[in-house]
Design brief:
Blueprint: H1 8-31, E1 46-54, E2 59-67, E3 70-77, E4 82-88, E5 99-100, E6 105-114, H2 116-146, H3 151-165, H4 169-184, H5 188-214, H6 217-225, H7 230-260, H8 272-283, H9 286-317
Antiparallel strand pairs: 1-6, 2-3, 2-5, 3-4
Helix pairs in contact: 2-3, 2-5, 2-8, 3-5, 4-5, 5-7, 6-7, 7-9, 8-9
GO molecular function, one term: transmembrane transporter activity
Function: Part of the binding-protein-dependent transport system for glutamine; probably responsible for the translocation of the substrate across the membrane.
Keywords: Amino-acid transport, Cell membrane, Membrane, Transmembrane, Transmembrane helix, Transport
Length: 319
């Protein structure tokens, strides 16, 4: 019986390589006299926002009750109208019996709020989801048109695919926003989604076309011999088999789409990378923020890759 080789030396070598890379990075930053400031990073994910509570009129503090970290202040004006405010106890700026003018700050309330990196992550997510769904629909329709026996559908779909794949996405975003968007009065979000969707659709179309053509012609002929129409044969026989084969390249295309959303920052959409660049201007911690941005992109793409791999294995078992 063949003895299985031990794998731990190779895993150990992997750890050594990763530690070496981390050490090389640290040494490179030390040559630049760079000071790491990771303590500045958390506030750009979540932070405690403060909202000033102000007196609505010339009033007097008639009651002040402290309940833990919260102070409840009651103000009464000359007409006898009362205003009740709840503020953080350590931010209280008045005492019982004090007179306050209209607009004076009594204290502040604090609540947790999402920082710019989390808002940028959310923008990247919804841009990716919407563009991915639209791109999949466009790609599926275009891919089938490329296989159509109708010369017009085949020619138009081929022109679209070659035109989009042959030009940079950045140029397409500029065209959609500054030309088409100006003529049709489109918002920058609409222009960005349209450019991403059409760009993704062109690549999905080629993936779909290759997947359908990889299915042997006998499958379609057998379905037609059983009385199915051409559309029924495609929908019930060919496409389900093709989907299993095109799942890996589709997953790769959608992972690329998530990263391609960073290009819409050129039309002032504050997605993840643009949020990171804005944070760098205030934090003066470029490496920390860029590593966090890269980690957030990885946080999106790794589960997507794992889900695609698991789905691929389950579909393979169903054969």
């Amino acid at each position: 019986m063949k003895q299985k080789k031990a794998q731990w030396p190779w895993h150990l070598l992997t750890v050594v390589v990763l530690v070496g890379l981390a050490g090389a990075l640290y040494y490179a930053t030390s040559l630049m006299s760079y000071e790491w400031r990771w303590n500045r990073v958390p506030q750009y994910f979540v932070y405690q926002a403060e909202t000033s509570q102000r007196a609505a009129d010339i009033s007097t503090v008639v009651e002040l009750v402290r309940k833990g970290d919260v102070a409840e202040v009651t103000l009464r004006n000359d007409a006898g109208n009362e205003q009740k405010l709840s503020v953080a106890d350590n931010s209280l700026q008045v005492a019982r019996g004090d007179d306050v003018a209209e607009g004076d700050v009594v204290g502040v309330t604090r609540q947790w709020a999402l920082g710019p990196l989390m808002w940028g992550l959310w923008t990247t997510l919804w841009l990716s989801v919407v563009s991915g769904i639209l791109g999949l629909a466009i790609g599926l329709a275009t891919g089938l048109c490329r296989l159509s026996s109708n010369p017009t559908l085949r020619d138009l779909s081929t022109i679209y695919v070659e035109l989009v794949r042959g030009t940079p996405l950045l140029v397409q975003i500029f065209i959609f926003y500054f030309f088409i968007g100006t003529v049709l009065n489109l918002s920058r979000e609409f222009a960005g989604i349209a450019a991403l969707s059409l760009f993704t659709g062109a690549y999905v179309a080629e993936i779909v076309r290759a997947g359908v053509q990889s299915i042997t012609r006998g499958q379609n002929e057998a379905a037609r011999s059983l009385g199915l129409s051409a559309s029924q044969s495609m929908r019930h026989v060919v496409l389900p088999q093709a989907f299993k084969r095109v799942l890996p390249p589709l997953a790769g295309q959608f992972i690329s789409l998530v990263k391609d959303t960073s290009l819409v920052s050129v039309i002032a959409i504050t997605e993840l990378l643009k949020s990171g660049r804005e944070v760098i201007t205030t934090s003066f911690s470029p490496f920390e923020i860029l590593f966090c941005v890269a980690g957030l992109y990885l946080l999106i793409n790794l589960p997507l890759s794992k889900i695609a791999s698991r789905l691929e294995r389950r579909l393979a078992q169903s054969d």
